[in-house]
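Budget justification, computational time. The allocation requested in the original proposal was used primarily to generate structure tokens for proteins on the priority list. As evidence of use, we reproduce two of the resulting records. The first is shown immediately below.
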Amino acid sequence: MDLTFYGGVAQIGGNKILLEDRDARLWLDMGSPFDLGAEYFVEFLKPRERLGLRDYFALDLVARIPGLYSEDALRYTDLRWQESDYSGIFITHVHFDHTNHLRFVDPAIPVHMGEGTRTILESWEATTTTAVLGPHDYRLFHTGDTVDADGVEVEPIHVDHSAPAAYGYLFHTSAGTIAYTGDLRKHGPQGRLTEDFIRSAAEAKPIALITEGTRVAPEDPRANMTEADVRAGAIELVREAPSKMVLVTFPGRDVDRIRTFSEVAQATGRKFVISAKTAHLLRTLKKDTHLSVPDVDKADHILVYNRGQKPFKWEQEIQEKLKDRVVIADILRKKPEDYLLQLDFWHLAELIDVEPPRGSLFIHSKSEPFEEDDINDEVLQRWLDRFGLVRKQLHASGHLSETEIEAMIRRIAPKAVYPVHTEHPERFTRFSRQTVQPELLRPMAVS
């Protein structure tokens, strides 16, 4: 039974791991690193997407893996397409660094994911031209389901993360159980789900645990806030700015955060003005009855911001459905103290039209920058300074802290620990003598 790591090694994101056991050949996630190609591409200098994997192969950015990629992805490369013998791909959650390379994958390979993850991808693909993953043989599951993948029993177990419908997995192989965390946390609204995973993994007595370690680092800039802390802190800040507009930015697919600021708006008597993409996501997620999301169609305190551009078809449908609950900048300018406005980084130019009063509050509800010279953060701060906005940080991380990772490993007590999704895999040896450092592209026997 072998594991081969094609990504996620000594880096945050890019998880792509091959598990081979007798006839079974299973992929654990199919992600892209956040910094893929950063040494060759910048701003408008991008890989030529019309040529599929050609540029990626030429620059050794993506591994040449026979039988994995589609004919379209290989058309302009020197790697010939061949019929796939992979048993399936198991996606943990929707985030880019776990799903993005599905766009290169042969559509004949089964792709297993939670129903909520597929629903989010539908909205993502409808509203974002750069996130189209293409056709696949999607096979959806819910908590409690199991999958037989060529002799390996795969048990998905829900976890709490900053994206809904996130799962870890137990792979019951011929050599024993392999536990894979995906990304997870305990301080979110559904922290009990992560407890379910840890308990189930411990009971399975795994021969190996493949675990994320995003926050395993000498210094962790993330405050260990809960989602309830974000809600309470935001309510307090908004109440301290009764005559000002309040603006907020948060990860666009963090449904817990959307719910949090919907509740903040209600608690402070404001209208929550969301982007059209957020409205589309919430309306799409209504199809998954296992998820609890604000009902955009019925919630009177939720409005949708119209940026005044020619609408896409999906935007036009939202505008026609919500009618008088679609607002433009002119309306927000008249009574700015009535609104809590979602403002994404790429829409900062809307500040020119909205004209929030100087001293208005800007809540940054995302991770703090990892580096002092973060260019996007510098640009954001210039916009805030230009318009006299007061910045406050409120964010609940999507990941376990280093202390929590250590406690999880001790509870599960695997025979071997493989750290991925971390820039500091060497730190795992501080609290686990069972640590095995993954090596890129080299099959590693597990027994």
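The second record produced under the same allocation is shown here.
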Amino acid sequence: MRTATTVEASAGDWNATAEYVAEAEKLGLDICWVAEAWGADAVSPLGYLAARTSTMRIGSAILQLGTRSPVLIAQTAMTLDRLSGGRFLLGLGASGPQVIEGLHGTAFAHPLARMRETVEIVRQVFAGEKLSYTGSQYQIPRPGGEGKPMRVSLAPASVPVYLAALSPKMLELTGEIADGWLGTSFVPEGAGAYLGHLDAGLARAGRVRADLDICQGAEVNVVDEARLAEVLASRKKELAFSLGGMGSGRTNFYHDAYSRQGWAQVAVQVRERWQAGDRDGAARLVTDEMVLATTLIGTQDMVRARLRDWREAGVDTVRLYPAGDTLAARLDNLGRGIDLARAAG
């Protein structure tokens, strides 16, 4: 099982984050993803990390549709691929209406069509083609204007494309057109809620599961039995935020994902409490089982067994989010996670 981590570009001291990534590479980590939400952009840190690392792959997790044109996404990916010596992975996601409409002022409608067309345009640019594209969301050159088909001046590049997906239709599209899937809220026992849709898309394109890197992420925190209850309690408010505060009142892909995996009633209650302003009450509704099922928290034996479950469910790459209040603590958890993932196969 390959190993990865994700860093937040706008979280805390960037020098400490860069040091964490450099040390993670020494531990043998395979991939470092850089997240982008409503803080710092992902591209600037990725360029910096390209210079600070030499063996691990680096990737965007994710660049959000609607914040850049498809051609600019392709140019950015090709530039980062050159800067990193061919180590870049392009992760794309639709994000949600709160960020896309509320912050960027662009329409969130038709995310599925926008994703398909974006990937098609990006791959045309990667191939060095003179760009001429007509779709429902994008038309290049713009009709009725003075533009003519052009190609970018960069040399063609081969950059793997990963899609962040949770909804059934976006999962099918991922299986059909992507090189990898960036997933979250994953429960091995309920993997069919995701993998069935991915497989449908793969079959539609005449592909098989081996053609798609199944990349799943979770917090890793190896603790002794005495601290387990305390750690689980601290994690519940974060999960309550995902279920009740992410997205908008009508659109929350995390809420939907947990609902499809057997927690529909709890997810509804958590969202109601959270949106009513009762954050502590929402967190109290989250069960230990929900936290343990979707994270890598527990004793060493528990985490080892859980990683084995992930591998048997079809996960190829595990994204480790190491807990810890200090750099040393985070690296310790990361190192343990890497060792346990390797042992899982």
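A brief technical remark on that second record: The longest strand covers residues 213-222.
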